[in-house]
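Deliverable D5.2: sample structural annotation.
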Amino acid sequence: MMRKTVLGLTLAALTASAGVFAASGRDPETDSRAQERLDHDTARAAERTEERAVRYAEERARIEERTMAEPDKAATDLAKLDADQVRDQDKAAEDAAKAQENFAENSAKEAEDAAEEADKLAERDDDGGSLGSSQLMRDLGESEGAEHDQDGYPVRRGEVVGIDFGAATLDAARARGFRVIERTRLGVLDREVVRLAAPAGMNSLAARKVLQDLDPKAVVDLVHYYGLNLTAGGKGKKVSGSPARRQSTGKLAVGVIDTAVVNHPALNGARIVSWQDGLQPGAPSAHGTAVASLIAGEGQATIYSANIFRGAPARPFTSADVIAEALEWNLAQGVPTINMSLAGPRNAILDRLIRDAVARGTTIVAAAGNGGPTAPPAYPAAVPGVVAVTAVDKDLRVYRYANRGRYITVAAPGVDIIAARAPGGYARFTGTSFATPHVTAWLARCRADGTGAAACTDRLRRTARDLGTAGFDDTYGFGLID
């Protein structure tokens, strides 16, 4: 009986040691060098543990066959075998602890390096768009322990989100170990968004695959993080005085899904209606204030401001679920035109909700992105039906870090644009973020007289002044909106 107990404990200990290694692989899809090394160590440790367990079982079986013939020698050999296995187990535990220490040290160093790189990018006059898209976003959500999707974009750890799950799907998900975190009813869009926590030990990518297999017809995706660095170039250069106001007139009703908007003289003529859920203490405000001031300069504006961002002022971020709620709020206000000067990866949930909003007659205008000429399409600008805006300078040359692609609708001035500076005064801003408000205002004026979304978008395309290659092209779309 004692020998069987020792055997059970020893095998359990070896299995636990392998589990320590296996559990330590937090995100198998990340490109982190620290993660790659940990994954390698984990795999090697699991192999060694399995080999030792097999050898132990085989050797023990051989010894026990001699128990009746040589009981004393068998007992001695078994005791030695168990002692060797305990030493192996102790060594495996030490290796696991060492691997975790190395991972923590290497991860901390990589985080420091990433933070330094982000600081360098923030100090530049542009956003470093030529470095690509997912690379610029990798650190977003880091404070929340983000994982990364198959393309390197940050996502919320251990979560998935779906639309309109049936009761049977949710029951099957619960049976597989999923837990419902939140169910949000979007009344205007007539959708229910469900957030689920993945089972213990399962990352978000694997969790998405499980849910897609459970219900192939369901709309399921990860909870992606989004930022401003792909649409806004730098912090803006402070200037003296105030800009000359455009002579545009008319009443504008515009939704602005962005950072918070603070009081500023440039907004004195505008009415600001804020989303209460976005009124968070210390919320970032620089970007939204600048964007709102550009819209306010286009006419008598009512701006429905939905702050969706959190995090450090220099690197604010948001997530797909928050964008969905802000979109629903704007639609509930009856806003006909919505400005979204943010960008990131495609997300099936946002894709569906934005297309729903467009289908019901809402005009959505989004920044085309500053990922650079070779960057992949930026979303939500590239969602079918969205008006995607690129930026040009005073000489009508495309902004050097602007995205290109068939999804570009039109261009507008977006280099060295003077807009409100949240701390006070004014600054020059560059990026597709700051071209987008002009087109949003144009469309809002068109919508103000009751013209439908499709008719206004068609008029926008026909009004655009052709730039670049004759006709529509991937750089300027249909052309410039003066």
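Annotation notes: Residues 56 and 228 are 57 Å apart (CA to CA). Residues 1-31, 115-132 have pLDDT under 50 and may be disordered.
The annotation will be released with the project's public dataset once the embargo ends.
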